[in-house]
Amino acid sequence: MDGIDESNWDPCNLLLSPGENDKYAVLVLNTPITLIFNTEQVLNLWNKALIRITVDGGTDKWLDWLKQNDLHQNTIKNIDLITGDMDSIKPETLEAFKESSTIIINTYDQEETDFTKAILELKSISCKLNLDIEYVVAFNSVCGRFDQVLGNVNTLYKINRRWPEIRILIVTNSITWLLSVGQHRIQIPSNLKKSQEWCALIPVGNKTFLTTSGLKWNLDNSPLEFGYLVSTSNTYSTKEENVVVLTDQPIVWSMGIKNLLV
């Protein structure tokens, strides 16, 4: 796979220790916040973001998380943008933020999910404010709604067509994102390799041919397709520093991070 232009990914480093040059937004979806990171790490990630967004009832979920950790909204950077159709946010929460500097945008369109609409609003605001956003870190939780999981994956594919430059990371006790057509180098922390944490390459919608290195079970121009082979429950080679993926179609990459802090 030498001689091919590639995209580099180091999401674990971004989440653990965002730097001054990391250009990202934080987005809180309407699910309970169940992250493996400690309070200080979450606040560091929140405060260093170029823009902070809560999606509808995700506003209440963020405030609940602050309360559970004995924090107050006034002691950290404010929510910059609240979006959604406002059917799940508490009325009193919405009223309170109307008196603040937070921008509130009601996205009525029922043809798109609130997640998709929030990313598109972020794109619009980024252009207006001349913000060079490279990543969106989306706090989410896999909480039993399989349809919402698929809806979130659909958002990754939709945004890849409408804003291909942005990188969306869906974060819980795993990190999930979309690898576009081409070659990708993914930095894997050593403790994830040592603990043989899981990873997966999941084709959605199309047969996908992949070549990989750095995995325990590599692919060599192999077809992945639902109904045939799907690379779930894979893990890492302990002999190679990174994972490299060459794909001819967009494909979902997901990696467990429960042992990231061990």
Can you put this structure into words, describing what you see?
- The chain has 262 residues and is α/β, with parallel strands linked by helices.
- It contains seven helices and 15 strands.
- A ten-stranded mixed β-sheet has the order 5-4-3-2-6-7-8-15-10-13, with helices on both faces.
- Helix 5 runs parallel beside helix 6.
- The longest helix is centred in the middle third of the chain and has 17 residues.
- It starts with 5 loop residues before the first strand and ends in a 6-residue tail after the last strand.
- 34% of the residues are buried.
Outline:
The protein is built from seven helices and 15 strands. By secondary structure, it is of the alpha/beta class. α5 packs parallel to α6.
What is the arithmetic mean of pLDDT?
Answer: 94
Extended strand count: 15
SS class: alpha/beta
Query: Globular, elongated, flat, extended or rod-shaped: what is the shape?
Result: globular
Distance between the termini: 32 Å
The gyration radius over C-alpha positions equals 19 Å
Order of helices and strands: EHEHEHEHEHEHEEEHEEEEEE
Which regions are unreliable across 5 or more consecutive residues at pLDDT < 50? none
Proportion of helical residues: 25-40%
Helix run count: 7
> β content, as a range?
25-35%
User: If strands are numbered along the chain, what order do they take across the biggest sheet?
Assistant: 5-4-3-2-6-7-8-15-10-13
Main beta sheet strand tally, sense and closure = 10 strands, mixed
